[in-house]
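Quick one: structure for this chain?
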Amino acid sequence: MTDFTQEALVLDAGDPLAFLRDRFELPLAADGSPAIYLCGNSLGPMPKGARDEIAAVLTRWSTLAVRGHHEGDYPWLVYHKRFSASLARLTGAHESEVVAMNTLTVNLHLLLASFYEPTSHRHRILIEEGAFPSDRHAVASQILWHNRRVDESLIEVSPSTLDGVWQTDDLIEKIDAAGDTLALVLLPGVQYRNGQVLDIARLTAAAHRVGARIGFDLAHAVGNVPLNLHDHAVDFAVWCHYKYLCSGPGAVGGAFIHDRHAHAAGLKRLTGWWGHDLATRFRMGPEFHATAGADGWQLSNPPILSLAPLAAALAIFDEAGMTRMRAKSNALDTFARRVIAAHCGSHIQILTPSDEASRGCQLSLRVVAGREYGRRVFQRLEALGVIGDWREPDVIRLAPMPLYTRFADVDAAISRLAEALADA
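Got it. Here's what it folds into:
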């Protein structure tokens, strides 16, 4: 037993969140043995309670049929409201500002339709270079939709440092340089490739200072790091629930719209009848009267079977609390870096920033010997029962999520990484 292994056992014994690991179904390795699951930044494992939540919907469907829209503990007509309080806590929002609906890119298009209003002078959108492809596709198509040219209206900001980390001051400098030509800023809360946490408060203030709106893709942030969207005055945000929030493949996504925009004069939106005020929705009138808050951006009745697992997941997050989760996340990250330094030496470059404010539940690792060798290392690591993921061109991502990851898992995973480096 190594010193790190002994330390991991001690840390696990004192972990106040250790009991939550048993709330999840954790996958097996290819040989049938328990895997070390470090891929919750791509798809979270299944909460055991998800089966019961789905079964409850099926039972209600079978026994009530159409009456299920109005009867039972969680009538389908307002089923999405079941999640508002938990999502508000996770995002630092008011309950009226958040809604579970659609999927991430659908929500992004809906909110870009409202918040990207180009004029002949103020028409540019600033995003990160190397943004998640779906975000760039959405932004570029919105620019084209407004009969503008992407090469004129899109600003893509690349990191100023060789390590690929975005410096907040540099991003703010780019925002200031765009000035009154800037209509919108769209950035991630956590950058998906290197795991960097961006400074939402300062970036929002900078965008507003030049008269631009700002939105955030929180796919890798919600359920990972503390958020304070309302107080930071973010205009809008979108996210998915299948990563850190463990709500199943293709799960219904989420959106935030700041209260100041709920009934803003002149703010356009694409509408559907589920966003119509509930008091008059079933009069089936031709005129649209928006439900107050984020609910007013809904289009159609939500897929209840797809929403159900979110209830099981959010119950676990509510029990854990983001303060305890964040403390354990930082402890897991610090421990992992020490083990990597001891076992992997100069063979691995950690791309994720080391300071606590700029990191979350993800370690992005580059194998220094290059892409082809790195791919072999990753494949060998999988064969050894460690489930992470690969991001082109050369990044292995490992996500020690505090709800179900033990310090012993981190110690074992890095030991196997060292073995994979030797074997590849």
